[in-house]
Amino acid sequence: MLKISSIGEGMIPKKSSQKYSSIIFYVGLVAMGILIAGVLSEPASLLQKILFFLGALGLTVVAHGNKQLMLFVLQIIICLGSILAFLDIGDMVKYAILLGAGIFVIGHVVMTKKYKKDRWGPICIVGLMLIAAGMATNAATYPLYFGLFLAMGSILVAFYSFMDYVYNKDKIAIIWLILNLIFAINPILLVISIVK
Fold first, then answer.
1. Radius of gyration (Cα) for the chain, nearest Å?
2. Which of 76, 48, 49, 77 is nearest to 60 (CA)?
3. Higher model confidence: residue 176 or residue 46?
4. Three-state DSSP class for 12?
C-alpha cells in the first residue's frame, strides 16, 4: 500500500512525489523560457503580452506546486501585471493597482513573519514587484521604464537566487539565477540604447 502525502491541493502517492517534483521543475523551466521569449519579442506586441502572461502563470503553478506561499503570492502579482498589460487603462492606474497588491503582499509577509525565515526575501519581493511593473508598462510608450523595471527586477531576483544557493544550498536556485540573468539581458540593452 502506498502512503499518501499532501502536495499542493491534491493528494499524490508518496512514491510519485519525486516525479511530481521533476514535472514542476520542467514546468518552471518552460515558463521561464516563455518569459525570455516574451522579452525578446517585439515590445508592446500582443505576442509579448501573451508570452508574459503564460510565463507568469506557469511560474505561479510552480510556486504553488512547491508550496512556496510567499513566492506564490508574489507570482500572482506578476500575473496581475501581465493581465494589466492587456487593459487599455492609464499607466498610473496600473501602477496604483500593483502598488495596492504590493502593499497586500508586504502585509502578508509581515503578518506571517516570513521575512524572519528568509532574510533575502525582501530583495526577491522588490525584484518581483519591479518585474510586474515592467510587464504592466506599455513598452511602446515608455520603453525606458519598461526596460528599467524588467532589468532591475530580474537582477534582484537573480541576486536572491544566488544568495539562496549560497546559504541554503538550493541547487534549483542556480537555474533561476541563470535564467533571470538571461531574462535581464534584452531589457538592459534596451535601456543602454535609449540612454546613449
1. 17
2. 76
3. 46
4. strand
